[in-house]
Amino acid sequence: MNGFKLLDNCLTPGRCFMPAWCFTPHRLYFSACRICLTGFLLVMISADVTAEKPVKVFVLAGQSNMDGQADIRTLDFLGEDVDPKRASLLRLFKSDAGELMTRNDVWVANAGVYGQLQTGFGGRRNYDKLGNKIGPEYAFGYYMGEAFDEQVLLIKYAPGGKSLHVDFRPPSAGKTGNEKLDAKVLTKEGAEQWNEGKVEPVVGLEYRKLVRYVEATLSMLGQRFPGYEKAQGYEIAGLVWFQGFNDMFDVSGRQQYGQNLIHLIHDLRRDLRAPDMKVVVGVMGVNGPENEDNPKQRDVRNGQRSINQVPALKGNATAIETAGFCHPRIVAIKTAGWLNKSRDLKTMPLTQQEQQMLARATSDKGYHYYGEARFFILVGKAFAENMLKLLGQSDSTEKQ
Predict the structure, then answer these.
(1) SS3 track for 125-154
(2) Residues 6+ apart with CB under 8 A from 318
(3) Which regions in the chain score pLDDT beneath 70?
(4) Torsion of Cα atoms, 384 then 288 then 155 then 54, to 10°
(5) Inter-axis angle of helices 257-271 and 295-305, to 10 degrees?
(6) Which residues contact 139 (CB under 8 A, 6 or more apart)?
(7) How far apart are CA 112 and CA 62, in angstroms?
(8) Which of 152, 91, 150 is closest to 117 using CA atoms?
(9) What is the CATH number of the domain that holds 343?
(10) Which DSSP category does 101 fall into?
């Protein structure tokens, strides 16, 4: 359930059955209680039915921006959006009293942390505990919880600084063509530090680790999430892929991105035994739409977009634009002198108002979308909207 705090139902004689937020006058007790009892029984029946349904599983994969690099303190900037509809979204994630949204009907598995949806699943130094950042999972999980009666599980695997061409290279993509790279294996020391002691090829390592993490999480659902009943089972319903920055720096990675992405979708559906898994790909949007002038970024973006032209993926996979969710004023300031050639910060230095805005809105570098929570809320919402469309679900995001 969505809630900034838990509320208890009371069945004490002489008191209302409704939770604390019900202000029904007690002189109406008898008629109110009949209504309340009916509602209470319906909730209990609904809970029993829900408990019997398979858990809806969504895999969130990619690199540092799927991990999420937005400090929670920047969330309030969402409420300053010039679009009133976007600004109003802040109320869904932060109450007027300052309490941050949590959902116990949405579970999250990320590195060494397993728990209900809340802030802190973004990038952090110690991945065995929560931090102070969010990624796309925060808004995506909220809307998945709104859309489904079933319990939802997000499995997020997003190591930073990894490419699709090498690190996440799927098996059916074959070798990279670089003999030295294709022959490279982890050192014993590297394996001990990063791969649980397994010495194996470097190419495709993160792909294999992703599959292993998903499988390990699903094999231990009862231990990781005490509310899980084995009779429920689970269904891997969707994959969200948000990645691309590291592939810009390799000519083959840029040129082959689209084909490698098709292999990734095919292989994950096979290896996770989820042939009907829907896929949403976030087209890299670092520094907004104008950064299309950068040929390296344009190549990767076009590779990601190319899946929308693959007949076999029509209706079950889609690539969506994310550049438009970057705040234009922030991009204009941060790229002054190079992408934004109309401004030279030496002759037109930042105003006090601009400095204050950046302090409120940003918390990281440009390649991390400036650590802007507004961006990660909007992109997570967009991922959810498109996933729900692929799944044939009514779009609950448009109602809020």
Answers:
(1) CCCCCCCCEECCHHHHHHHHHHHCCCCEEE
(2) 279, 280, 281, 307, 308, 386, 389, 390
(3) 1-51, 394-400
(4) 10
(5) 40
(6) 93, 376, 377, 378, 379, 380, 381, 384
(7) 17
(8) 152
(9) 3.40.50.1110
(10) P
Q: How many domains does the chain have?
A: 2
Query: Residues 327, 353: one domain?
Result: yes
User: Token pair for residue 34?
Assistant: 């009949």
Q: How far apart are CA 157 and CA 62, in angstroms?
A: 7
Within 10 Å of residue 197's Cβ, how many Cβ atoms? 10
d(CA 88, CA 190) in angstroms, rounded, equals: 47
Distances (CA, A) of 332 to 125, 327, 329, 345, 358: 30, 9, 5, 11, 12
Helices and strands (H, E) in the chain, number of each type? 15, 10
Same domain, 14 and 159: no
Q: In this predicted structure, what is the pLDDT of residue 28?
A: 33
State whether 296 and 342 are in the same domain: yes
**pTM for the whole structure:** 0.87
Place of tokens 């802040």: 90
Which pLDDT does position 34 carry in this prediction?
Answer: 39
Same domain, 42 and 76: no
